[in-house]
Amino acid sequence: MQLVAELEATARRERVVPLRLAEAYLGLGDLDGAFRYLDSALAERQPALVWFSLRLPRWEPARRDPRFTELMAKMGLDAEGRPHGGDSASRQ
Question: How many Cα atoms are found within 13 Å in the side-chain-facing hemisphere of 22?
């Protein structure tokens, strides 16, 4: 919790990448905080960074949360990270 408090204090004074705060909350097991900052990262136009990070094994708890599908939809992707309506046959 101390690290998160320090990161949030720093974010009030200078730029902190929202994904870093999301990861800190994830580490605490606080998915509400993690998703709040993932939404901030998308608002700052960082979808590629969010998409890549969410593929990492440590984000598995978030992938099981219903908000994950909503987050992916905001990026125009399905839950597997593919463009909506995209399948392997349509890309051939």
Answer: 21
